[in-house]
Amino acid sequence: MRGVIVTADDFGLHARVNEAVVLAHRDGVLSAASLMVGAPAAHGAIACARELPDLRVGLHIVLADGHATLAPSTIPDLVDRQGRFGSSMARDGLRFFSLPHVRAQLAAEIRAQFEAFAATGLALDHVNAHKHFHLHPTVLALILEIGRDFGMRAMRLPNELHGSILLRPWIALAKARMERAGIDHNDHVAGLRLTGRMDEAAFLSVLREPPGGVLEIYCHPASMGRGALTSSMRGYRHSDELAALRSPAVAAAIVATGAMQGGFADVFGHAVRQPTRVSA
């Protein structure tokens, strides 16, 4: 196996997520995090990332079940009056494809999220989308087009180990488009089938027989707290995922693969620009 990338999604969603990212990176195997630039705790996540120069940070583009970056009046066909995207991805995906005025708002919001990430001064390690909406051909085409302006070099390919056969045509299309655009990507992911349940046993199961190429293992860690982080995360075992990221057994299993560890920039040999420190 060439490389292992261990990523935390939803960085910036909540202070509990930010705390978990810091702990899992400093004391465990977490090598990357995907930042939601419009989320409630994004500023805290950015501050954490500036203190962790070896943590590779990417852009987690939110187009469903989360907060937009632009004002609702700018993208009224995408969000409600509070600036939140809906959760009906099938309906929205059809609108993205078929309605030019909706597609124009979508492009504006994607660009705004890239701009917000660039404004942090953090190096852009990778790009992916919340709930893997970048498998949608229209969304992917816009990310590939707009991402060029912001130095995007790598994206997540949600090619789950032993994943659904129904997703294979979409994954093959996404892979071909990324490669035509010169965008590096992982070969496999682990974390989709067990979303919210990537505990120590799940990590060790994946690493027992690792696939060839580059494997990205992604999860959703958070520190202990009361209640679900969002309504769609009821049942997520965030603290179990954090424990797995800090597990000596998991760390030993990754070392045993002999694969390179780090973010996309490390595995694919991209130059890494150090984060810009902003004085208070």
Automatic annotation (TrEMBL):
One example of a Gene Ontology biological process annotation: carbohydrate metabolic process
Keyword tags: Carbohydrate metabolism, Hydrolase, Magnesium, Metal-binding
Cofactor: Mg(2+)
GO MF terms held by the record: deacetylase activity; hydrolase activity; metal ion binding
Pfam families: YdjC
SUPFAM superfamilies assigned to the protein according to its UniProt record, in alphabetical order: Glycoside hydrolase/deacetylase
Full protein name: Hopanoid biosynthesis associated protein HpnK
Lineage summary: Bacteria, Pseudomonadati, Pseudomonadota, Betaproteobacteria, Burkholderiales
